[in-house]
Amino acid sequence: MAGMKLYGSDSTHLLSFRHSVSTAPPRLASYPSRVRFDSAKLGRLRVLSMAAKRNPKRLKYSAPRFAKEDELVYVEVDPSGTDSWKLEPVVELLKQGAVGVIPTDTVYAIVCHLRSHSAIERLRRIKNIEPSKPLSILCRSLRDIDTYTTGFPCGDGRGHANIFRAVKHCLPGPYTFILTASKELPKQCVRYGTTTAKYAARKNVGVRMPDDAICQAILEKMDAPLISTSVKWPKENEWMIDPVVIADIYGPEGLDFVVDGGIRVADPSTVVDMTGSSPKIVRLGKVINEYSIENYVMVVGALNFTESAVYIHFDQTPPTWSRFSSAVFRYSVERPDGSNACRNNSCSVYCELDGKRLLKPCQFDTIVLRNLTANHYHNFLLNVTTLNGENNSSAYSWFIDTIPPTANVSSEQNYTSAEKITIDITFSEACNGHGGFKCVNSSNCDVIVDGPAHVQPSSLRIIKPNIKYSLKLVLSLKNTYGRVVVRMAENFCKDRAGNNFTRSNASTAVIHFDRRPVLVDLWSSVPSYELAINGVPRTVFATNRTENLEVYLDFSIPIINSTEQILNALDVNSGSLMPVHDRTHGNRRFVFNLKNIASETEIITVKLHAGLLSGRTGTPISPVASLQFLYDCTKPGVGLSSNSPNVTKVSNINVIVEFTKPVFGFEASMIEVNGGSLIRFKELSRALYSLTVMAVTNNVVSISIPEGKVNDISGNMNVASNKIEMIHYSTPAISMHYTRL
C-alpha cells in the first residue's frame, strides 16, 4: 500500500488512496464471516480485507428469482448485474417506503427512499442509530450531487484548485464526500446531520456514487437518491459482509428485503470532508482501483495547488506503473501568474523517498533515483522554499512492477464426452499492451490447441474485462477418445508496466475426452465351481463364509460418484453392504462387505442400478448383470440304506449312500467298513452313490461314513452318517450234505 501526502503553505493534509498489490496470483482461502476494524483515525488505517465462508443458511435463500422468508424478500443477483431484471420488486418496494439491504462497491448498506420520512425513521430504529449519527445518500450521477448539495469547489483562479474537475475522475468510486446540503435535501434528512467533531456542520451530508453494478442498476430505476448507512454487527464494531447473515440478524428487526450480491470485502469507503477551505481526510478506507491510479495522481495534483503562493509542476515523471528500478523527475516551480519562482536556483529544495529524507542534496530541475525496490509502491516528495519564505510540496507515487503477467487456463470439464467444453482464461493482471489478448479466428488466436480439437472464436466471452475470458473448445467427433493440450501463446501482450506475458505451469490445461461406453464388472470374493447341470456346464458361486465376504465394482474409467452414491445404487436381497472406504483405486474400484445375512441358506442377489452413475467424462455406466451366489452354512447330512436283511447269509451287501445336498470329492476310501471289504463304488450323482460290501467272516459287518470327510459346494463338511450293521452267516457243511441226499 502507498500513501500520498499533500502539503500546503499553511497546513498539512494527508490524502491516502490505498492500493493493495499481490506479487503472485491470488489464492482462495476460507476466512471468518466477520472482520473487525479499528475506529477511524486520521492517518493510515489498516482494514483487514477477507472473504467469508459460505454460510450453510445460504441454501435457505437460494431461490432463482426472489422468495419470501417470514415476510423478508430475498433477491439473489449476479455481482456483474447481468440479471438486474430481478431487482424490479426491490425498486417497487423502495418507492413504497421499504427499508432493505443492497450491496455497494465497499460493504453492504441499509437503504431507504430519500423522501420517505417514515422509512428513514424505521431505518434508524432497525440499526439503532442515534439522531446525531450521520447518514449518507447514494446518488445516481453528479447531477444528483449538484441537486442535493452545493457541490464541489470549482477554483477561483487565485491558486485555489478546481476540486470538482479533479474529483469527478474518481466517481463513481469508493468515496464519501462531505458536502454542504442544499435546500432540495428534505428537512428530515438535514436534521439528522452530525454534530461530532469529524463533520463540519449540522447541514452537511455525505454523498456517494458507488461503482457497483447492482447498486447502480437500482439507483437508475429510482426517482431520487437513497438514504444509506453501512451494515455492522449490532453490538460489535465489525462489518457484516455476508448477506445471508445480514438477513438472519436484521430480518427480524424489520427489514423488508435483502439483495444478495455475494460476500463482500470488509473495506469501507474513504471519507473526505470538502466543506472547509481545503479537503480533509476523515477516514481512510477503500480507494480507487489499480486501473485508475492515473486519476489518483490527477486528484493529488489538483488538491496540491490549494492555497499555495507557489506550486511545483512535474515536467517528467516515471510512468505510474514502471518496470524499471530507476526514476527521473524533472520539475519547475512557478507562481500563479506563470513566472519562475526559483530564478537562478534561488530556492531551497529537499526530497523524501518513501517517507525518508534523501541524504544527498536534491538537484535543481532534475532528480535521478536509482536501485529502487522492485514490486513495491514508491512515494517521492519534493519540498521547495523560496527566498521569500514561500513554501510548497508536491508528491508523486508510482509502482515498480517487474513481475510478468501470466494466465491460468482451466476447465470444469477436464474429462468429458461432450462435443464442446468451456475453457476459462484468467489473467494475473490486465495485459493490454501489444494488442492485448485476442482470438479472431483459429489461425489468429492467443490460445494454442494441440490435439484433435479447435477453439471456436465466435464463442469468446468477456467475463471480467482484461482479466477473465471464456472460450468454447470443439472436440473432434472423428475420434472416440483422446487428449487435447490447451496453452497460451508467448509474448502476445504486455502489462501496464511493459512486462511481456510469460507462460506458467498453470497456463496449460489438459483435456481428456472419451466417448466409449463406461463398463463395470460386478463380482465378489465368493469362489466359483464348474458344474454340469442336466448335462449343461454351469459356473456356480457359493460360500459359507461370514467374514470378509466382499462385493467388488470395477469400472473401466474413474467415475464421478461417491461411495455413498454407489451404495445407494446397489440393491441386495439379504444382509447389508458396508463400504470399505480406503480401496477406491482412484474412483475405479469400490469394495463393500456383505454382513448380517439372516438365513443360514440363501441365494444372494446383488443388483446395480447403473443409470444412477456416470463416468468422469459424463458418460452413463452401461448396464451390468446382477451378481448371484449361494450362501449356505449348513453341513450336508448323509444316510446309508440297504435292502439286505439284518441277518443274511448273502456275502455281497448292496448299500445306497444319499447326501442331503451335492458334495464334492467323495471317494471309496472315505467309507469305513468292518467285517468285510468294499468291492464296488459308483457315483450316481453328486448326492447319490451306490456301493457293494462283501462279508469276509461269519461275523457282524458294519458300514459308516465318518464326519468331515467331504464338503458341499459352499465348503461345509459333512456330518457323520448312520451305521449299517448286519450279521453274516454261512450254511453248515452237514446241512449241505443232507440237501444233496
TrEMBL record:
Lineage: superkingdom: Eukaryota
Domain YrdC-like: 84-287
Gene Ontology terms, MF aspect: double-stranded RNA binding
The name this protein goes by in its record: Threonylcarbamoyl-AMP synthase
Organism: Corchorus capsularis (Jute)
